[in-house]
Design a protein that fits this description.
alpha+beta; 31% strand; single chain; 35% helix
Amino acid sequence: MQKLISKIKIRKADINDSAKIAECLLICWQEAYAGILDNGFLVKLGDVIIPDNYNQILGGEHNIFLAEADQEAIGIVNFGASRQNEYSGNSEIYLLYLRKAWWGFGIGKLLLKTAEEKIYQKNPFAGILVTVLTANIRAQEFYKYQGYRPLPSSHKQFNLFSYSYPTSLWSKSFK
């Protein structure tokens, strides 16, 4: 396994990565949420996860990092200031996804640790938040193993298209 992991490169995304990001996100969503989210929802994602969405983001200040194997994007993490009004001053993992073929090799942990290190460098007193779909038990177990805990009474709905899915907010502190 160590030899496999040594071939993985984690790097900050650049302006030329828009297509890689869109393809990686679409495939990751379809793989991770098969059987969890409605198939119609997963099919429609191809209409909103498009390279043009990332051109402007990647041309400015951002915190998007890719995991690559042989120059193919196999995972992604994006983070920044919390979007949760009641938790301003904290940071948030906006998304962390990994291709299914790479699950269980520690690459998701590498992506998460990259984000946590960058967050800690900017604000060692901040907490980190992440929103997890209630039905995504695998993600809940992953974050729990990494020291995150669900916040009580933090249940919200994730709405896109005509679909709505329950989520919960998880947190971790550097203290």
